[in-house]
Amino acid sequence: MPEFKDVTIVKKANIYFDGKVTSRAIVFPDGSRKTLGIMLPGEYEFNTDAPELMEIMAGDLEVLLPGEEVWQTIKGGESFEVPGNAKFSLRVKAVMDYCCSFLGQR
Asked: By three-state DSSP, how is residue 95 classified?
């Protein structure tokens, strides 16, 4: 879906890795949350609380998912899921525009 309607946007940005990763949280009427963000080229490691769906709107990256030994290439228009209470790594090759959905949270 190219746009979200009837949502609340949190004004304060989430800023990580000295500003190389930023996002804004949006909250839906049912209490579910997503973040919309940008990642600059670099290598990053993230931890999850809840399962996440990462939709890559634009960009070029590699992801190392929990329990895997092989990096996967992901490009704009593709997505991947990460389990809750897990750690994953990214190698962002080109500026990445993303939408992260927090699955199962309300």
From this structure: strand
Q: Tokens for 15?
A: 């800023």
* Tokens matching residue 82: 């990460």
CA 35 from centre of chain: 7
Say if residues 56 and 77 touch (Cβ distance below 8 Å). yes
pTM, entire model: 0.90
Instruction: Count the domains in the chain.
Output: 1
DSSP string, 11-26: SSPEEEGGGTEEEEEE
Provide the residue range defining the domain that includes 88. Answer: 8-102
The answer to whether residue 2 is domain-embedded is: no
As given in the structure block, the two tokens for residue 64 are 């190392």
Are residues 51 and 104 in contact, defined by beta-carbon separation less than 8 angstroms?
yes
Q: Which of 49, 47, 42 is nearest to 18 (CA)?
A: 42
Reported as a single tens digit per residue, the pLDDT across 26-48 is 999 999 999 999 999 999 999 99
Distance, CA of 97 to CA of 106 (rounded, Å): 24
